[in-house]
Amino acid sequence: MRGRFVGLRLGFIGAAALALAGGIAAQASQPPSRYSYERPRTESAAERALQARVRELGRGFPGEVGIAVRDIDGDAGLMASWNGNRFFPQQSVSKFWVAITALQRVDAGALDLDRRVTITRADLTLFNQPIAAQIGPNGYTTTLGSLMYRAITQSDNTCNDIVLRHAGGPGAVRAMLARNRLEGIRFGPGERLLQAGIAGMQWNNAFSVGRGFEAARRQIPASRRRDAFERYIDDPVDGATPDGITNGLARLQRGELLSRASTSRLLSIMAQVRTGPQRLRGGLAPGWSIGHKTGSGQVFNGVQAGYNDIGILTSPDGRHYAVAVMIGRTSVPNLTRMQLMQNVTRAVIAYDEARGEDERGPRRIPYAEPRGDSEVGGKTY
Fold first, then answer.
1. Strand 77-82 to strand 239-240: parallel, antiparallel, or no bridges (unpaired)?
2. Which member of 15, 85, 293, 361 has the greatest number of CB atoms within 10 A?
């Protein structure tokens, strides 16, 4: 009897061993889960210092601000964020998405940037539009590529609206964002309707002539302007999150959104931006460079809705970081805003120095007092 019990037990053990072996074999024959063998990534001391500095800068700024920093080349990804998932007014930062939409159409063979177009007075928008000075009685003829260049480097609203029109309009930009899974980004109705709505007005083409928009805005009751202004800041129709923006910048740099030629073209244009020289750019150390896009919103009762800069910082050894500083509401002087942005740039540089210190040795980063800003009138670059 005992021998029979021992035999049964050995039989059970053998069956269990066979089942276990079969299970292991079955697992080995299947592709591993993307989560099966991942180890939690350990943050470096340099990353923790950067996160602490970004939190300090965000918490200490007298206004509503969002900050994000992303390592584009390494495995760190999103390294630091303050209010990173909150939507802030983009204003002219949205010209970045217009350019990507247009260039995707170029890559698809649906748009030719060498196409010549003639701009007339009827094409004018409002606020910043330097090209208006070149439009004579017979208009002004140029190429779509030149208009895109002006839209990014000078933040010219009329140039951007014409590029937007040829790229398919606001719906095409929204479709591009959805198609490429660029989350945390909204696109508004275009410059004219957007700015009129922020002021509590309906757009009228007469606003494009001279200071027509400003004159009409002064006639709007303060209560109506305040309500429209506050609604916009609280839920901006053109809003974007700092985390979403740095993701888009990183994907552009990595060549995931455009062809190699179009990627190079847009990055080159962003490197030549003339607006906001004392924003993120003002914090650069020797050997560093930036390609960026600024944005500034309307001012009501001393409060500005949107004062931004987004860009890609490049270190002397070619490492890239995506950075976004989005100020949704503030009344502090421009100097204070620019100092915040410059300090974010310096924080990224300090991080890069810390992570590469063993290879290069420490290097002091000089401080330069901000000298001013090229943006005027509270709207809109």
1. unpaired
2. 293
